[in-house]
Amino acid sequence: MSESKFREVLPKQGMLAVEDVTAMVMCKPKLLPLKSVTLEKLEKMQHEAQEIIQQQEQAAPQCSTSALDQ
């Protein structure tokens, strides 16, 4: 192995100045959901409410026709 061409030199007198340079660290990107959990719950509740309304609307004409027949 070859030795490095430079060797470390520390001053024997005076102050030693060291520059601490912060570098940006690249990290793995975080995937965010397109819809939040709360939004998904609200959409599910709205869909269920619409289904209930449709069922009631379908049941209403059947009840009115059977009442007229009597």
TrEMBL record:
Biased composition (Low complexity): 51-60
Entry superkingdom: Eukaryota
Transmembrane domains' residue ranges: none
Biased composition (Polar residues): 61-70
Biological process, per Gene Ontology: B cell homeostasis; cilium assembly; eating behavior; erythrocyte homeostasis; gene expression; receptor localization to non-motile cilium; Wnt signaling pathway
Protein name: BBSome interacting protein 1
Record gene name: BBIP1
GO cellular component, as recorded: BBSome; ciliary membrane; cytoplasm
PANTHER family noted in UniProt: BBSOME-INTERACTING PROTEIN 1
Alphabetized Pfam families for the sequence: BBIP10
Region (Disordered): 51-70
Species whose genome carries this gene: Naja naja
